[in-house]
Amino acid sequence: QVRLVESGGGSVQPGGSLRLSCAASGFTLDRYAIGWFRQAPGKEREGVSCIAPSAGDTFYSDSVKGRFAISRDNAKNTVYLQMNSLKPDDTAVYYCAARLYTGSYYYTPLLVDEYDYWGQGTQVTVSS
Fold first, then answer.
1. SS3 per residue for 27-78
2. The pLDDT value given to residue 30
3. Per-residue pLDDT reduced to its tens digit, 86-121
4. What is the end-to-end Cα distance of the chain in Å, rounded?
5. What is the C-alpha to C-alpha distance for residues 46 and 23, in angstroms, rounded to an integer?
6. What CA–CA distance (Å, rounded) separates 6 from 71?
7. How many CA atoms does the CB half-sphere of 69 hold within 13 Å?
8. What are phi and psi for residue 63, nearest 5 degrees?
9. Is 96 helix (H, G, I), strand (E, B) or coil?
10. Sign of the dihedral through C-alpha 34, 57, 54, 73
């Protein structure tokens, strides 16, 4: 059974940091690109960052560029999202998702509809 499980969410003050983890089971990640998405109340789900299987090709949304860093450990079947300098606007449920890695990854890296498998999400709250 294909499964993605996020962890590491929580509450933090503005300027703080969190590291999210996405653990995969039921399949190996080495053929999949992994994306992180988030959804705030009343807003659409948006792409945050994604990483190709080789870990060499990453993308970030403009809103998190320079503050977030995505990485992966294929041996552990896990992808991470290091979030620094957090802002209240980063408050959302964060999801990881997997898509089979093909050339289309480079044209639509953070398109929600291109991702086939999703985790259940983890809450991140940034507040003073």
1. CCHHHEEEEEEEECCCCCCEEEEEECCCCCCEEECCCCCCCEEEEEECCCCE
2. 85
3. 999 999 999 999 999 999 999 999 999 999 999 999
4. 40
5. 20
6. 14
7. 7
8. -70, -20
9. strand
10. negative
Hey, what are 1's tokens?
């059974």
Three-state DSSP state, 80: strand
Can you read off the two tokens belonging to residue 9? Answer: 């969410």
The CA distance from 61 to 76, in Å, is 26
Structural contact between residues 68 and 57, judged by C-beta atoms closer than 8 angstroms:
no
- 82 residue type, one letter: Q
Q: 79 is written with which tokens?
A: 């992808």
Q: What is the pLDDT of residues 47-56, one digit of tens each?
A: 999 999 986 7
Please check whether residue 68 is in contact with residue 82, taking contact to mean a CB–CB distance below 8 angstroms: yes
**Cβ atoms of 69 and 127 closer than 8 Å:** no
By the 10 Å C-beta count (0-12 exposed, 13-18 middle, 19+ buried), 79 is classed as buried
Residue 22 has which token pair?
């996405």
Q: Which two tokens stand for residue 106?
A: 């480079």
